[in-house]
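Translate sequence into C-alpha cells.
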Amino acid sequence: MGRRGLRVPLRYVQVFTDRHGRERYYFRRAGCPRVALPGAVGSPEFLAAYHAALANEPPPVATRKAPEAGTFGKLVLDYLQSIQFRRTKPSSQAVTRSIMERFAEKHGHRSVAGMKRKHVEAILADMHETPAAANNLLSRIRMLIKHAIAHDQIRHDVTQGIPFYREGSIHTWTDAELQAFEERWPLGTRQRTAYALALYTGQRRSDVARMTWADYDAAAGTIRVKQMKTGVELLVPVHPALKQALEAWPRNHIAILANAKGHGTSIHGFGGFMAEAISKAGLPGRCVLHGLRKAAVRRLAEAGCSALQIMAVTGHRTLAEVQRYADEAQQEPMAREAISRLPLSNLPRKV
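Result follows.
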C-alpha cells in the first residue's frame, strides 16, 4: 500500500492511497490501535467513528510508579475503566477524562478516605476566577466519590451540600448584533452559511458542525438532526433565510460546512472558525457561537411560540429551561405594557 504524507484537518487522522488509487482514512495515535474511519470525510459514520476513537485515549503513562490503592489517582483510573464511564457518550467521555486526569495530576496522591468537605471547598476556592471550570470539577469529583461509595471504599459523600458557583449566563445575541454579522459576511460565504444553520435550526455547535447535505431535504424543506449530546432526533423545517443561504453555498463535500480545502470540519475547529468570524464582524466578546442558539429561542418566543413548540425545534429536554428563555424574551415587552398602564395623574405640573 502506498503511503502519502497528507493529513486531513482532524487530529490523529491520516489519509493513505492504496494500490487502486483510493484514499483510505485511519485514526492513528501513539499508544492506541489504528482505527479505520469508514465513509467520506465528514459523513455521519466517519465522524461517529472518529469521535469514538478520540474518546478512547490511552491510559496515562506512569513515569515512576502506579498510583497507590486508596488514593484519588487510583480511583480515577478505576472510574475511567468502569462500565458507568463507558456508558456515557464519547464526547462526554473525552471531557470527563480530561478533567479527571488533570485533577489526578495535582491531587492524585490524596487519600480518598481522608478527603473532607473542607478539602474539596479549598480546591474549588482556588478556582473562583473560573466558576464554570470549578463547577465542572465539582461534578467530576462527585462522580468519583459515588464510585468509591459503590465499591465500599468510603461511606459518605463529602461533596454533599457543596454549592455550585453562580455562572454568568451566555449572552443572547440582539437583533442589532445579528444584523452586524450578516452585513460583514454576505450570502455565499462559509461564515454566513454556518451562522444561518446555527440561528435557524437552533442547534448546538457539535450538531451544526456535523450537518451533511444528506441531512438536508430541499424538496421537503427540512433538515434532519440527531443531537450528539442528547441523542434526540429532530426534523427541523428550513426557514426561507436558511434556504437562501444553503442555495448560495456550493456543494463540494458531503459535509455542508466543508472548508476551503474541501474537507469536513471538527467540532473544535468549527468553534475556532466561528470565533474568528465573530471577531472580524466587530462584535463584542460577549457574542459567542452558543449565543446564536439562545437567539433562536428568543426569536421563536418573541414570535409567540409556546415552550413546547420551541422544544420541537431546539430539542431541549426540559420545559423549565425553554420556559426561562421564553420568559426572558417576553420580559421587556411585558414591562413596557405594565408601565404604560400606570396613571398619569401624579405627573408634576409645569409652572
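Note: The beta strands are 2-7, 13-17, 23-27, 35-37, 216-217, 222-226, 233-237.
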